[in-house]
Write a structure and sequence with these properties.
The protein is an all-alpha fold. Helix content is 74%, strand content 0%. Helix 2 (35-57) packs across helix 6 (155-177), helix 3 runs antiparallel to helix 4 and helix 7 (183-193) runs antiparallel to helix 9 (203-221). The two termini are 26 Å apart.
Length: 225
């Protein structure tokens, strides 16, 4: 049965909500986990959310992936815009859930593992260094997404591959920017943190989108349609 636009947008909303809720939730509440554990949490959350939503919406859960699909003419402009809106709302809802369950804690500092560069970067990376990391790793992840989709393997294997790829990419990106590669993942925390996170959120829209365009170029250079 063909899925309606409503079903697809609902899937993107819920999938992105679960991804951001679990990834950011683990990052800010589980002090016993080192960086690798947080990266695995993001990756496995994406894998599960993609497995749930892939048969319905394609399991983008990332505006940059939807942008790449639009560039490849695999979706219309209006569908791209609807997907992005659903993803951004889903990410915001995920952080809203975290805010609700944490706001009564005495040690809650209203920080949601937002992304940043400069003084907001974990290792003080400037705009240029952070930009290179976000563009290259976004292109790597999105190219993997495209190739996995075209391989048409089992949904479970595809989802696991994408989750592990995202974990590896986050393991490198986190010291520089806290790991975005996804405008929605940056948008939700920025909305609730405000301040510098909100001032810098534009960067985490632009860089993954540039990475998506680069992934499309790489895809064509590899002889793919």
């Amino acid at each position: 049965m063909k899925n309606s636009t409503t079903h697809k947008l609902t899937a993107e909303f819920l999938g992105t909500m679960f991804f951001v809720l679990i990834g950011c939730g683990v990052a800010i509440t589980t002090t016993s986990l080192a960086g690798l554990g947080v990266c695995l949490a993001f990756g496995l959350a994406f894998a599960a959310a993609h497995y749930i939503t892939s048969p319905i919406s394609g399991g983008h859960l990332n505006p940059a992936i939807s942008f790449a699909s639009w560039l490849c003419k695999k979706m219309e402009l209006k569908d791209f815009l609807f997907y992005v809106a659903a993803q951004l709302l889903g990410a915001t809802a995920g952080i809203a859930v975290l805010y609700f369950v944490l706001m009564g804690k005495t040690d809650f500092n209203h920080m949601f593992f937002s992304n940043g560069f400069g003084i907001s970067s974990p290792n003080g990376s400037g705009l240029m260094e952070a930009g290179v990391i976000e563009v290259i790793l976004s292109s790597f992840f999105i190219l993997t997404f495209c190739m996995v989709k075209e391989a048409k393997g089992s949904c479970a294997c595809s989802s696991l591959m994408l989750g592990l790829t995202l974990s590896v990419a986050y393991f490198l990106a986190t010291p520089f920017t806290n790991g975005s590669l996804n405008p929605a993942r940056s948008f939700g925390p920025a909305i609730f943190e405000g301040g510098m996170a909100l001032q810098q959120v534009w960067f985490f829209f632009v860089m993954p989108m540039v990475g998506a365009a680069l992934a499309v170029v790489f895809h064509k250079l590899l002889g793919q349609k």
